[in-house]
């Protein structure tokens, strides 16, 4: 029995995470082969990460064959799992997504607002091509998509590619469970959060510890200033009034929507002091790669935890483990709604607790959306559909609609100004426009 994992974007500084995850789970999920794939521009990074991954595997003594290559089609042969972690246009493009909106007075973020729209426009066509290759070369494989904006990209793949074995994952629900466990002084495995919503727009409706409802304790702590933001975004905390009125656990990205002015102020200040998050990450990556080059380093370095996506591999590896072992446990993933939220289309992708078996995720019924957030979730889903359409048609008016219907942009004139500036800035990566 063999298990082959292909990591698309294998030259990423995050890769030691997934290697560690595979090593740690090898007793239950015995991967036999890993292939790291990257593109020409990522070649140097791929070589450094590949060598570190090799040392990590050698140290672990696990019988895992490892290789790295720029030949994606060759790598995909006989793959069982294909994980994707790519950034079309690299950190340079991300920096533009963050800086240009801020310069025009709008939120500039990698996955939200105008930045998120442009990341989706650049990424969807590239991943659709990958999904077509997967379908042709290794139709049996599960695609585990980490590539942002993860929910939107996953929906685009499920709707517009022939390959249907696609699952989107994100570390935010995982982080929320971990932070909750910490404040309740228990282990994450004892915590269950009922999630409702969409990727980077998900709320926790109920928190249970070993089946006992701890929602109000957690909400109280959150309104007292608990810090549960990942490294990449600000933590402003939530007012007691907001938490009491909504009775929901917001995720850190909700700050962009419900504390827009305050985040803008903080982000502008951060831009002046440190540059964009992409520029901070570039510096972080530089020192990470210096560490990775050390031939004596055989483990994932602690410094990797300074990245916003720290621990993402736990999410990916647990998911693959459960599919492989037909575990029927519950994990939070991005998958087809299939009626879990009755008000949203059956074929919308939502972020939802799901039972994971060898057939993939089966979403657990969420039920009707609370009135408080119903309007926002509808709007976000409708906006996501507009972005997907624009990424495929390449029509100016479709992209404009996505901009103007996004709650972080909205302004008629501002949307056009921003759209024109970003289309120009990213033209090399938007051949469809
Ligand atoms: C969070 C998000 C991820 C995102 C990451 C960015 O964890 O959930 O979707 O990719 O942060 O982190 P970075 O260190 O690249 O800013």
From TrEMBL:
Cofactor: how and how many bound: Binds 1 NAD(+) per subunit.
Output the GO biological process annotations, alphabetical, semicolon-separated: carbohydrate metabolic process
Question: Where, in this chain's numbering, is Mn(2+) bound?
Answer: 170, 200
Binding positions for substrate? 94, 148
Q: Name one GO molecular function term.
A: oxidoreductase activity, acting on the CH-OH group of donors, NAD or NADP as acceptor
Highest taxon listed in the record's lineage: Bacteria
Please give the coiled-coil regions recorded for this protein.
Answer: none
Q: Which InterPro entries match?
A: GlycHydrolase_4_CS (IPR019802), Glyco_hydro_4 (IPR001088), Glyco_hydro_4_C (IPR022616), Lactate_DH/Glyco_Ohase_4_C (IPR015955), NAD(P)-bd_dom_sf (IPR036291)
Q: Which UniProt keywords apply?
A: Cobalt, Glycosidase, Hydrolase, Iron, Manganese, Metal-binding, NAD, Nickel
A single Pfam family it belongs to is: Glyco_hydro_4C
Task: State its cofactor.
Answer: NAD(+)
Q: Which residues form the Glycosyl hydrolase family 4 C-terminal domain?
A: 195-409
Instruction: Name the residues annotated as site: Increases basicity of active site Tyr.
Output: 110
Stated family: Belongs to the glycosyl hydrolase 4 family.
The protein, known as: Diacetylchitobiose-6-phosphate hydrolase
């Amino acid at each position: 029995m063999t298990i082959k994992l292909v990591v698309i974007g294998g030259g990423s500084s995050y890769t030691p995470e997934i290697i560690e995850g595979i090593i740690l789970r090898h007793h239950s999920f015995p991967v036999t082969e890993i292939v790291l794939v990257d593109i020409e521009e990522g070649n140097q990074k791929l070589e450094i990460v590949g060598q570190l991954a090799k040392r990590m595997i050698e140290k672990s003594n696990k019988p895992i064959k490892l290789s790295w290559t720029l030949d994606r089609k060759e790598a995909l042969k006989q793959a069982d799992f294909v994980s994707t972690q790519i950034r079309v246009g690299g950190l340079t493009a991300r920096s533009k997504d963050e800086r240009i909106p801020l310069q025009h007075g709008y939120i500039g973020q990698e996955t939200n607002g105008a930045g998120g729209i442009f990341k989706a426009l650049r990424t969807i066509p590239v991943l659709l091509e990958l999904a077509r290759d997967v379908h042709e070369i290794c139709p049996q494989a599960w695609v585990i998509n980490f590539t942002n904006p993860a929910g939107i990209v996953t929906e685009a793949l499920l709707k517009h590619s022939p390959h249907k074995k696609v699952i989107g994952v994100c570390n935010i629900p995982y982080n929320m469970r971990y932070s909750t466990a910490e404040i309740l002084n228990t282990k994450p495995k004892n915590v269950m959060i009922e999630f409702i919503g969409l990727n980077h727009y998900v709320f926790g409706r109920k928190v249970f510890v070993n089946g006992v409802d701890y929602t109000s304790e957690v909400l109280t702590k959150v309104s007292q200033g608990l810090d549960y933001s990942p490294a990449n975004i600000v933590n402003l905390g939530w007012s007691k009034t907001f938490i009491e009125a909504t009775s929901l656990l917001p995720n850190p990205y909700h700050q962009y929507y419900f504390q827009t002015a305050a985040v803008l102020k903080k982000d502008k200040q951060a831009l002046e002091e440190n540059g964009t998050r992409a520029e901070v990450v570039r510096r972080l990556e530089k020192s990470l790669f210096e560490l990775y080059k050390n031939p004596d380093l055989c483990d994932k370095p602690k410094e990797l935890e300074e990245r916003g996506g720290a621990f993402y591999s736990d999410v990916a590896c647990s998911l693959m483990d459960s599919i492989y072992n037909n575990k029927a446990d519950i994990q939070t993933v991005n998958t087809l709604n299939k009626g879990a939220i009755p008000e949203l289309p059956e074929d919308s992708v939502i972020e939802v607790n799901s039972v994971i078996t060898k057939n993939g995720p089966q979403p657990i019924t969420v039920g009707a959306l609370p009135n408080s957030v119903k309007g926002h979730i509808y709007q976000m889903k409708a906006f996501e559909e507009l972005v997907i359409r624009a990424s495929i048609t390449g029509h100016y008016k479709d992209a404009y609609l996505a901009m103007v219907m996004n709650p972080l942009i909205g302004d008629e004139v501002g949307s056009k100004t921003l759209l024109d500036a970003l289309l120009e800035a990213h033209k090399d990566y938007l051949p469809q426009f």
